[in-house]
Amino acid sequence: MNKDIDAMLSRAPVLPVLTIDDLEAAAPLAETLFEAGLPVVEVTLRTPVALEAIGRMRDAVPGMIIGAGTVLVEDDLKKVERAGAAFAISPGATTALYRAAQQASIPFVPGVATASEVMAGVELGWQRFKFFPAEAAGGVATLKSWLGPLPDARFCPTGGISGSNAADYLRQKNVLTVGGSWMVPAEAVRDHDWPRIAALARDCVNLLSD
Q1: Which residues pair with 178 in a beta bridge?
Q2: Is the peptide bond before 133 cis (omega within 30 degrees of 0)?
Q3: Which residues fall within 8 angstroms of residue 144, CB to CB, at 6 or more apart?
Q4: Rounded Cα gap, residues 54 and 84, in angstroms
């Protein structure tokens, strides 16, 4: 599973975290992000249309890798599998969710905020995690402190990350990609301002170019 999720998340430096409540925005948003160089996204299960949005985005951009976020319980995991999500990601993890993920057909990225949570995941066979909420849980300093005792673990930090600090995270050896929503401002999505979103997405692609 590590190779599968590594291949997905390493395709771009930033994983856009999308909360979609307007189905009509799903397809053009996917097209905009993909064409701007961000081919992997997370659609959170925070709205009633999230599962349908995943399907619309897959249909609009077959080459896009669409994960499902805010997966909290076993039923959520089953639903996102049926919706065609390429991977599932969670803000945390429970014993029941880990157990369900062991039987799932798609990779699961559990959320962690402490070394103990990372160790519990490693004990169950996981090495790839969402570090959440990254900034509130110590940010880059925490990731640096984990590298020595947990050298095989890799992370997708999310929470409090923006264009101003994302590069600091991406420079860490144990970071695969970073997650955030700063490139998809709510008002830009609402107004279908795709040129603005495209420009912000291109900035994400070039974070480490300087």
Answers
A1: 14
A2: yes
A3: 172
A4: 7
Number of residues that make up the chain: 210
Question: What DSSP designation does 15 have?
Answer: E
Cα(20)–Cα(190) distance, integer angstroms: 10
pLDDT values of the chain reduced to their tens digit, one per residue, 210 residues: 677 999 999 999 999 999 999 999 999 999 999 999 999 999 999 999 999 999 999 999 999 999 999 999 999 999 999 999 999 999 999 999 999 999 999 999 999 999 999 999 999 999 999 999 999 999 999 999 999 999 999 999 999 999 999 999 999 999 999 999 999 999 999 999 999 999 999 999 999 875
Q: Is 75 exposed, middle or buried (0-12, 13-18, 19+ CB in 10 A)?
A: exposed
Domain 2-205 CATH (choose: 3.40.50.20, 2.40.160.60, 3.30.70.370, 3.20.20.70): 3.20.20.70
Q: What angle do CA 108, 114, 116 make, to 5 degrees?
A: 85
Q: CA 174, 131, 204 angle in degrees (round to 5)?
A: 75
| Active site amino acids | 42, 130
The single-letter DSSP state of residue 107 is: -
Q: How far apart are CA 153 and CA 99, in angstroms?
A: 20
Give the pair of three-digit tokens for residue 127. Answer: 């090495």
Question: 């160089």: which residue's tokens?
Answer: 37
> Among 198, 5, 184, 3, which residue's Cα sits nearest to residue 85?
5
